[in-house]
Design a protein that fits this description.
The protein is mainly alpha-helical. The protein folds into two domains: about 55 residues, Arc Repressor Mutant, subunit A; about 45 residues, no CATH class. It has a two-stranded antiparallel ribbon. Helix 5 crosses helix 6.
C-alpha cells in the first residue's frame, strides 16, 4: 500500500521474503474479509491487480502508526527516513497523500 505495490510479483519480491504459499493465503484472507480486492489488469489480462477497498483504506492511519512504532524498535524496516519524518511532522498530511494516491 505505502510502496505502491499492486501485483503478486511486487509483494513476492518484497524485502520481507514471504513464501509464495503464505503470500497467496494471506491475499485470499484479506480479500475474504474485505480489506483488498482484485481485478484483471487491463494492460495484461493474465495479471491480477490488487487494490485496497474502502474498508482497507480506513486502516491507513493505523498502519502509519504501526510503521512508526515498528521503526522505533526495529531500524531495518523497508521504509524510508522521509516517510518516518513525515509521519512525525505531518501525520494527517501523509495519510491524505497515501489515500489520494490510492484513489
Amino acid at each position: 500500500m505505502v510502496q505502491g505495490k499492486k501485483f503478486y510479483k511486487d509483494f513476492q519480491s518484497s524485502k520481507e521474503g514471504i513464501a509464495t504459499n503464505i503470500l497467496s493465503d494471506r491475499l485470499k484472507k484479506l480479500e475474504k474479509i474485505g480489506i483488498i480486492e482484485w481485478r484483471v489488469y487491463e494492460k495484461l489480462r493474465t495479471k491480477k491487480e490488487y487494490t485496497l477497498t474502502e474498508k482497507g483504506k480506513d486502516l491507513i492511519p493505523l498502519l502509519v502508526d504501526l510503521i512508526v512504532w515498528s521503526n522505533k524498535y526495529q531500524g531495518d524496516l523497508a521504509v524510508s527516513d522521509y516517510f518516518i519524518k513525515r509521519a512525525h511532522e505531518d501525520r494527517d498530511g501523509l495519510i491524505e497523500t497515501i489515500r489520494a494516491r490510492l484513489d
